From TrEMBL, chain A:
Protein's UniProt name: Dipeptide transport system permease protein DppC
Signal peptide range in chain numbering: none
Domain ABC transmembrane type-1 span(s) in chain numbering: 173-369
Cellular location(s): Cell membrane
One annotated GO biological process: transmembrane transport
Record-annotated membrane-spanning stretches: 41-59, 177-203, 239-257, 293-312, 348-368
Stored InterPro entries: MetI-like, MetI-like_sf, OppC_N
Originating organism: Thalassovita mediterranea
Topological relation to the membrane, as annotated: Multi-pass membrane protein
From TrEMBL, chain B:
Residues annotated as transmembrane: 9-27, 104-130, 142-163, 296-322
Pfam families the record matches: BPD_transp_1, BPD_transp_1_N
Intracellular or extracellular location(s): Cell membrane
Any one Gene Ontology BP term: transmembrane transport
Name recorded for this polypeptide: Nickel transport system permease protein NikB
InterPro entries for the chain: BPD_transp_1_N, MetI-like, MetI-like_sf
Organism: Thalassovita mediterranea
Amino acid sequence: MTDVTPETTPTKLTAEERRRQKFYSASQWTLIWWRFRRHKAAMVAAMILAVMAISGLFAEVVAPYGPTTRDAKYLDGAPQIPMFCDQNGCSMRPFVHGVSTKRDPVTLRAVSVPDPDKRVYVHFFAKGEANHILGVIPNTRHLFLLDDPKAKLHLWGTDDLGRDVFSRTIYATRVSLSIGVLGVMISFVLALIIGGVAGYAGGVLDSVIQRVTEVIRVVPIIPLYMGLAAAMPKEWSTTQVYFAMTLILGLFGWPTLARRIRSQLLSIRNEDYVVAARLAGARPARIIGRHMLPSFTSFIIVDLVISFPYMILSETALSFVGLGLRPPTVSWGVLLQQAQSVRVIEQTPWLFIPAIFVVVAVLAFTVIGDGLRDAADPYSDSH
Amino acid sequence: MLRFTLERLIGMVITMALVSVMVFLIMEIPPGDYADRYAFRKYSGTGVNVTEADIQAIRADLGLDKPMMLRYFDWIGGIVLRGDFGQAFAFETSVVKVIGDKGWLTLGILFATLLVTYLVSIPVGIFAAVRRASAMDYGLTIFSYLGLALPNFLLALVLLYFANRWFGADIGGLFSDQYADAPWSLAKVWDMIKHLWLPAVVLAWSAVAYQIQTVRATMSDELNKLSVTVARARGVPETKLLIKYPARLAINPIVSTIGFDVNRIFSELPIVAVVLGLTELGELLLRAYLDLDMYVAGAILLLLTFTIVFMNFVSDLLLAWLDPRIKLGA
């Protein structure tokens, strides 16, 4: 603003000056967004994550089949890649080769072999299995299906029961991401309360809370989670187990964030505007929420984003060893339970595809966290 | 120094006491208690009709009918005074017998992992700081991202797969078949060391990724200090200069996070143990949880956490010795 000389009228601003004016009058959140946008890797990560979240949310449409639908004709089947050309020429519409069952001459076991002369075409948004989106909206359309209702397209192969790995992974994405979100939300609320009380009250209460926090931090976290998860009664329904898992993950995820909130509150609790609010008779909850927290909201968001990977990895690890979610619920960890041995890598490597989702999701959250951290303080001078 | 040590020692004891309370609470969470599970396991399928009175008798026999406070003091008293961690019902013997020498194996894995972590991360981190913005520096950044993102059980599986392909040997587990049940001997120890590298590498993976970044960051700060410029102006050879000034200080954050590393290693241990077929405390802990054998689980959780608390204590003392400023601040 100071750069605008008195004799220039607003209409004669150069492009450079207009840019500056826009910059100086932008709100804090706009500045954060502008800076975040320049972080290319973080933008890419955010897009990947958005695609993941949307496919998880609309799993009923994106996945061609249900998570437990079995294809008895295609057990432990390899991924089928849709193609445009084969020995019999090309087609505009992608297709896969039909599968026929033959008997192995030596072992007499039924084996599925692709039949190169039979083409089954892929249709988009075709009608297939009826289901309810998020259990509410009735739906029969699927992102892609084969035109022959008896044939199934297994983009990423099938497991030993003939269940479609692609469909299961999409459904698992919903479960795993939502557990992460709920877990982070629970730990955020706990961190807000615990860190808020410690940082605002200070004194003896603060020391006691610090001790307890230290005790929780010192216990190895996965064994601790395991102990709580093991206590879940075996007869619980899948829904109960799901919510219990989010509770367990959230229950011990708060110490890092609580520590951050506490130290920030301690550093500003004697600022003039806080004292003024106190003297005006505001209640502590209002002073913390209305006057103190907004000064470091962006840092809290960073901490929340980077705590996602721990939630996701913990859930995956617990389900992987059979202490977390249980079939028929599908999560990335539950799917990877089938991939516990070296034999699986050799014979059915496509069962590891859910692991790629875990790695990509964790990487994406980490990169976004880095981008946000750079952007969180838009007034710093690394501009 | 004596006062500093005493203060830390008292802090350690208080933390351990609080940890024991927490572990006890976790042991209490699963529905039913030892008497229920013991009766169920012992008499199910034998045709004997177990009544509530029988279970009450077992309960009274084991002192489980007392209020929770008293049971806690019974439990922790047994551990502190007699080294008695209670009964392992799934094995029908004492917890101490079940754990046996698994505690030492776990410590072996722990120290092998720490050794790998520091032997790799300190030199590589220093090198990355000296050659900032080189191709290797960027490569290491990507590696650090992967270090966090790759679930370690996946890494374990992949390494196991390649180890099987390239070396062909049975690489999983901690011992070869002929030594598994053999009494301890030099040959057995050597056999264990040959198997130890795989779990050590898997467990060290994420710690290495993290510590390289820490060393690199501190080292970068220290390299810009005047002391380095002065030493360079005096004509001190570059290698000697690096070791004498910035590298000495770059080790401090590593020392201060030893407890943190141990915590992470123990956290990952049960999962990695399942994949690699290790027979140590992590695997036993997982089995105990699945059987709801809570005395075994509690004992292991307690031992693991005590090790972490103790390593924190050691790291405090080491740091105070390396960096005398810490002592004054405390």
